[in-house]
Write the structure tokens for this entry.
Amino acid sequence: MNFEELITERRSVRAYKAEPVSHDILEKILKEAQMAPSWKNLQASRCYVVESPEMLEKFRELALPSFNAKSSSNAALIVTTFVRDLVAFTQGQPDTELGNKWGAYDLGLHDAYLVLAAKNAGLDTLIMGIRNADAIREALSIPENEDIVSVIAIGYRDQNPSLRPRKELGEVVKFF
Ligand SMILES: Cc1cc2nc3c(=O)[nH]c(=O)nc-3n(C[C@H](O)[C@H](O)[C@H](O)COP(=O)(O)O)c2cc1C
């Protein structure tokens, strides 16, 4: 699949086949996601992968609201976090007015690579921002110095969603 096909054919998929994603494919995708640029190459993004069927069932119930649990059933789940007070911080002080938003920015780049790498491997994804961060932290023993951001479902699609409309370029871009 060429790059243009990748970016135009990726969709948020909310129905997955009961076909597990192999551990090796998950590792390949996670390694490709590491190729994303990051502030001073700090690589503060972290992933917690829930792949065992027994854990997935329990995790979905405790970590996701029912609509996201339903959308992601049969998929593996990747929790993404970033280390707080590290990206764009010097000796504990923020380098810019954006503070920890730079950590979130780096994680967003990482996750964009991740969903495209998944697509390239024949898989689809759903980024979920509605999740129970406290329950996730406890279930996966995520350290307190990491901010829990998204849960990404990854699996083999069982639906073909159409492209959601994008704004006209002129609405969101200004050329000078
Ligand atoms: C940060 C973020 C959080 C999102 N959270 C959810 C969510 O909790 N549940 C859901 O069904 N979709 C969620 N989405 C998916 C968006 O609704 C979707 O990306 C958008 O409608 C565009 O559709 P597309 O991804 O198919 O192009 C989220 C997407 C992003 C980037």
User: Anything to note?
Assistant: The chain has one domain: 8-159. The first strand starts at residue 45 and ends at 50.
